[in-house]
Amino acid sequence: MHGYQGRESERLRDQAGALVDLLHSDTRYPPGSQVLEAGCGVGAQTITLARNSPHARIASVDISADSLEEARTRVDGAGITNVEFRHADIFALPFDPAFFDHIFVCFVLEHLSRPLDALAKLKAVLRPGGTITVIEGDHGSAYFHPESPAARAAIDCLVELQRASGGGNAMIGRQLYPLLSAAGFDAVHVSPRMVYVDSSRPDLVEAFTKRTFTAMVEGVRESAISAGLARPDAFDAGIRDLYRTAESDGVFCYTFFKALGTKR
Amino acid sequence: MHGYQGRESERLRDQAGALVDLLHSDTRYPPGSQVLEAGCGVGAQTITLARNSPHARIASVDISADSLEEARTRVDGAGITNVEFRHADIFALPFDPAFFDHIFVCFVLEHLSRPLDALAKLKAVLRPGGTITVIEGDHGSAYFHPESPAARAAIDCLVELQRASGGGNAMIGRQLYPLLSAAGFDAVHVSPRMVYVDSSRPDLVEAFTKRTFTAMVEGVRESAISAGLARPDAFDAGIRDLYRTAESDGVFCYTFFKALGTKR
Questions:
Q1: What is the pTM of this model?
Q2: CA A184 to chain centre
């Protein structure tokens, strides 16, 4: 659900705010447990993760030093003390084998061309009996009323750009079960977390339909146009139609997938 | 979720079995209340409806005398005594205004070209303060892994046939909020009921992915071909790809929408 230019940090904060309960509420780690947050980015999920497990010791890593610096600033600003940040690549993790009790991965696999290999690397630093939690979106799960081919085309630009930039897969959410199973995790359980928005839920209209999803699509406007994926007028029509779903007779649906697996 | 030829009754029974809890568990009517089930068809929902509210008096109507006869046989066979069947058209209901305390409508609006007018007719026989419950599917909510353009094209045949046969709308689920609101119901609340199926849930793979959804699409094969919507080989490839989503690394998602509204 991220990447690309423009209003990025603001959008991620909005998203984290609106979706915190939906995505996080059932993730609590025991006191003293060692938890790896792999790919923390700008820390959008880190604060919630750390607050929900205040006595767990969380190591948050990211491949981007800039993102990590922003995450550190936010987490420090929130007065959180159980997170240590470390600059690291998921594919070359600087931890001993079986070091962690639990691993948490949120909105990361969607950006990787080899998500299965990443899961194998993560599994190596997880102790037997430890768990991995993976949360991903799925842009193919978005549908809305009124329907709009222009809006679909604009969303497809985002999917295509994510594929083009490093081989990501914006529709990976639905694949978490086969991915975690193929990586050899046991007792894999996936629960979809559907966001349903109509005008009886004005906070969600604002926080999700407009400021998270549509803003995210809008954020790739220049990239999509310069990559030749869309003409400006067609893209703008798609964005208008996405905002149209936020009106009083509009409806917007999106599903996140949360998977839990255990290492044998 | 129904209509068309082929394995119809069997499929509807499977569906009712697998989805009973998901769709029905929060619908219970008080003892003595008068409930209208509008469009009961072959009674796929009637038995559950009646069992969950054993002391409510249920009037189940349908426009098809044949379906009604099958429903009566099934309900009688189940030993249920709180249902009366009546042959009637939703657009010409043989009941006094404000006669019913509650109305239940399941998989009916999707078949009507004027769902809003139907809701107005239903509202007329509902007492002030009474509730309407509407459950509909949405074929645009179906997505799966592996993705398949052929499978999508086969599903689109079903959507197109439903539109052609009487102006139905197979993607009406997402529209329940605006529809009930436009019909003047108060306090409209819609809750999506997502069916998520992976191979850790073999009963659902069998009952939903294969015997409900894919069988339903497969059921329109001859109609789709004779209507010129698909070539036999292309349609069959789509069906194969839908069955493919039922294999061990496949995933299938579908969402039903349940709406509750109150008459002022």
A1: 0.93
A2: 22
B61: which DSSP letter? E
Question: How far is residue A10's CA from residue A22's CA, in Å, rounded to a whole number?
Answer: 19
Question: What is the structure's pLDDT at B135?
Answer: 98
pLDDT of A21 reads 87
pLDDT on residue A20: 85
Put simply, the answer to whether B178 touches A253 (Cβ < 8 Å) is no
Q: Which residues of B touch A159 (CB under 8 A)?
A: none
- pLDDT at site A9: 56
Question: Which of these ranges, A18-22, A37-41, B82-86, B124-128, has the smallest mean pLDDT?
Answer: A18-22
Which residue is it, tokens 């190596």? A124
Distance from CA of A72 to the nearest CA of B (A): 37
Q: Are strands A251-262 and A126-136 parallel, antiparallel or unpaired?
A: antiparallel
pLDDT classification of B14: cutoffs 50, 70, 90? low
The closest alpha carbon to A199, from B177, B249, B172, B233, belongs to B177
Rounded Cα gap, residues A198 and B137, in angstroms: 17
Which of B175, B190, B198 lies closest to A177 in CB terms? Answer: B198
Given an 8 Å threshold on Cβ–Cβ distance, is B143 in contact with A174? Answer: yes
**B122 or B16, which is more confident?**
B122
Contact with chain B for residue A191, Cβ under 8 A: yes
The 3-state DSSP class for residue A204 equals helix
Q: Kindly report each contact of residues B161-166 with a partner whose C-beta sits within 8 Å and lies 24 or more positions away, as own/partner.
A: B161/B4, B161/B220, B161/B223, B161/B224, B161/B227, B161/B229, B162/B3, B162/B110, B162/B111, B164/B227, B165/B3, B166/B111, B166/B112, B166/B113
| Closest residue on chain B to A250 (Cα) | B178
Using a CB-CB distance cutoff of 8 angstroms, which residues of chain A are in contact with residue B249?
A: 177-178, 181-182
Inter-chain contact B174–A253, Cβ cutoff 8 Å?
yes
List the beta strands (DSSP E) in chain A: 34-38, 57-62, 83-87, 100-106, 126-136, 143-145, 186-198, 251-262
Cβ neighbours of B182 in A, within 8 Å: 249
Rounded to whole angstroms, the Cα distance separating A235 from A214 reads: 12
Shortest distance between the Cα of B145 and any Cα of chain A, in A, equals 7
Which of A192, A199, A200 has the CB atom closest to B189's CB atom?
A: A200
| C-beta atoms of B143 and A141 within 8 A | yes
Dist CA B68 CA A185 (whole Å): 50
Shortest Cα distance from A251 to chain B (angstroms)? 7
The ipTM assigned to this model is 0.92
Nearest chain B Cα distance for residue A82, angstroms: 35
pLDDT at A18: 63
Strand, helix or coil for residue A220: coil
Contact call for residues B179 and B148 (beta carbons, < 8 A): no
**A122 pLDDT more than 60:** yes
